[in-house]
Amino acid sequence: MLARDKVLFYQHNLAPASMTASKQVLSWNASQGYMLTHNLTETAYGGGLQSSWLAVVGAFQTRVFARYADARITSYDHLADKVTRTAFDGFSVTTNWDATQPFTAGAHRLAPSGILVANADSSLVAGVFTVYNNATLSNGDHYLIEERGASEIIVRQPMGGHHAANPSTFRLGRLSTDSNMGIWPR
After folding, report:
1. How far is CA 29 from the centre of its chain?
2. What are the C-alpha distances in Å from 80 to residues 85, 96, 127?
3. What's the CA dihedral at 34, 36, 42, 44 to 10 degrees?
4. N or C: which end of the chain has fewer CB within 10 A?
């Protein structure tokens, strides 16, 4: 991936199976540094304007993947059986390749086939979780993007466990004592 600072990478030839319509494709693209694609017409592989994956692709591409799109890969390591970490300049992607078992990475538990993307100062943490900041989330996979700024924390959840009958709870860690601090779920 020597040209990452010069060109954006996408999966091969726009084949329907390479569109981001599954957790496994999202995780593959994150770990390899590829950008996301979504088929606007429904196919046997997913896609379509009504697909819940359209929100996931939009949120992760703009808020997460775009932030390390031009960062060079500095290492690729095996952390455990079926778990890897790809280090980019200023970012890391931990990928749980196991389709049946979760993986604990610090205060987070990655869902089976889930990912954890974080920048060096943890002002951006995103991925597919069942436990987040040591708080067990409601049943199912939670696609989360947390962005921390000087005066706000924004948590986006484009898919998973966020409807009124099954609310998500987040332990956001230590908050600033600044009275202008705002927390805005999006």
Report:
1. 10
2. 10, 9, 18
3. 30
4. C
Q: How far is CA 17 from CA 35, 37, 61, 76, in A?
A: 15, 11, 18, 25
Q: What is the pLDDT of residues 46-90, one digit of tens each?
A: 888 988 999 999 999 999 999 988 888 899 999 999 999 999 999
* Domain residue ranges of the chain, discontinuous segments joined by +: 12-68, 73-167
List the one residue out of 160, 135, 145 whose CA is nearest residue 52: 160
Side-chain-side CA neighbours of 16 within 13 Å: the count stands at 9
Place of tokens 């960062």: 71
Crossing angle of the two packed helices 23-32 and 53-63, in degrees rounded to 10: 20
Please state the pTM of the whole predicted model. 0.83
